[in-house]
Amino acid sequence: MSLETQSPVRAAEEPSGPIRHRRKLPRLAPLALYAAGVAVGALLSALTGFSLALTVFYGAVLGTLAVYAGSRAVEGRRKATDRLVTALVTTAFAVAMVPLVSLVYTVLDKGLARFDGQFFTNSMFRVVGEGGGAYHAILGTLIITALAAAISVPIGLLTSIYLVEYGSGRLKKSITFFVDVMTGIPSIVAGLFAFALFTLIFGNGIRLGVMGAVALSVLMIPVVVRSCEEVLKLVPNELREASYALGVPKWRTVVKVVLPTAIAGLGTGVTLAVARVVGETAPLLVTVGLITGTNLNPFDGRMATLPVFAYYQLTQPGVDAQAFLDRAWTAALLLIIIVMALNIVARLISRFFAPKTGH
Amino acid sequence: MAKRIEVSDLNIYYGNFLAVEGVNVAIEPRSITALIGPSGCGKSTFLRSLNRMHEVLPGARVEGKVVMDGQDLYAADTDPVDVRRSIGMVFQRPNPFPTMSIYDNVIAGNRLNSKRMKKAEADEVVEKSLRGANLWAEVKDRLDRPGSGLSGGQQQRLCIARAIAVEPDVLLMDEPCSALDPISTLAIEDLMAELKERFTIVIVTHNMQQAARVSEQTGFFNLNGVGQPGRLIEFNPTEKIFSNPDEKATEDYISGRFG
Ligand SMILES: Nc1ncnc2c1ncn2[C@@H]1O[C@H](COP(=O)(O)OP(=O)(O)OP(=O)(O)O)[C@@H](O)[C@H]1O
Ligand SMILES: [Mg+2]
Fold first, then answer.
1. Which pick of A117, B30, B157, B234 has the fewest CB atoms within 10 Å?
2. Does residue A150 sit in the same domain as residue A228?
3. What residues pack around ion ligand 2 (CB closer than 5 A)?
4. pTM of this prediction?
5. For residue B42, which atom of ligand 1 is closest to its CA?
6. CB B5 within 8 A of CB B50
7. Which range marks the domain in which residue A69 is found?
8. Residue A276 exposed, middle or buried by CB count within 10 Å (0-12, 13-18, 19+)
């Protein structure tokens, strides 16, 4: 029972019981209030020497306050709070978008200069100034990441199958614990681990592509285990039981019922895990190093990779510093494109492999 | 080939919790045996222990004997996978495989076990099973569509088709009609009446009329209180249970005077 329904005057205006008609702000009013806020904001910021950021800031604060006050006066408290919180959430979103947009803009702006055919077809062999490209680094990144995936996916997938389908008790708990710990390992530690491991076996000064793949696997395995585990847990138990009840052994049930049902999620998880490691720099720096020429054999000497390539272009420019800087930005742009492409692939996988209910 | 199942002194546990205690019963071949009783008294638990589905749950175990035509199902050298091959099961909620077509769902029992089959042979099994489950007419034009695109009642009949496609000796059904409309329920009851010519059928149901309609034998499970194990209170021909039961508790339950 609210006051309004008890007041005879109001009751006459708003007849039927608990569903009352509310007065509303005109549809364009909030927009107008925000525009006014921005205008006042511009004036305010002009006092201290005009700045766009300050104008937007003042505008957002003043506009929100004005809309809140207006809505409170006209529409009542609940609606006003709704508008206030909507404004806060939208602002948080906008603030979160600022770094992303600015990053993409900057990388595009500076990276497009060398985003040309030469960049994709030439290596840095005997290049000291302009020209050259990242052909060797692109292929190196692809090879090393593929190798890392080839190591991590079987291990990670089998571990997650063990955890979900077979594991119990102590062993399962400790594996889960160590996977959690591994998730938090700093990437340089993974690099040093691979470095120490291969140095122990092959002696000092060893640099191989496969060392980088091992280092990346250390980072990738826990991510694969985690995401595959979550996906396998989502497979309804009823399907396993349906399969057992048909006299299908457990391992066949896992291979032929559980995995196919989860394939979309598994593919997505693996793809995102690849995206997670493809831009790693530190572990590759200490294990794979860098060369200027093209080496496609991960078992023989140093290789070039995109992140390390970008790092060296930036930190150790040659005679024409600007050319080196441009190549670093283009490499960064390419990395972003690769990660984005992997995310799109992950989405496509989950779309195309999802169980169909179609009619 | 229908088979007779004899259960003696069966205790069923979830970890340390004794869920069902001291069941002694003989289930006759080529007949329908209904299990009734209040919720939580262990009907599903008992049913699942007949084809060793119970032990799939972690910590679940069984004491006592279940013998099917002279073979001890819980003997150390009996493979639970073989037991489940000859004792099929239909679950309360329809659970077709979402990744498979209707066709593949029906012959899943063969395909998943990598049994080699000629196309013609497989086609024949699919048609026979779907006809057996009274679903053929409804789906024969869309066998390649996903099984999860069917209605609930159709999905349940698909699951029955899947269960009978592997030609089990015994068919266990846990409240197969609880999610179905009266028409689908009738269809499944008719189906059971046909199937009992070839299989031994055990059905759990909360629907007393259904038990009375379809079954030859009825078992009444009950439990004395919360946390107590469920027991098989009475097992008798269906007519006797519903007209003149031996036990007072049975009569109370059937006539709705249940506490
Ligand atoms: N997975 C499980 N773990 C532990 N206890 C269980 C489990 N499933 C069932 N129980 C217990 O076992 C007892 C019997 O359960 P059951 O499912 O067999 O009952 P039911 O007779 O089938 O009941 P309903 O008619 O509601 O299906 C109950 O006390 C239940 O709490
Ligand atoms: Mg039950």
1. A117
2. yes
3. B 44
4. 0.84
5. 18
6. yes
7. 22-113
8. middle
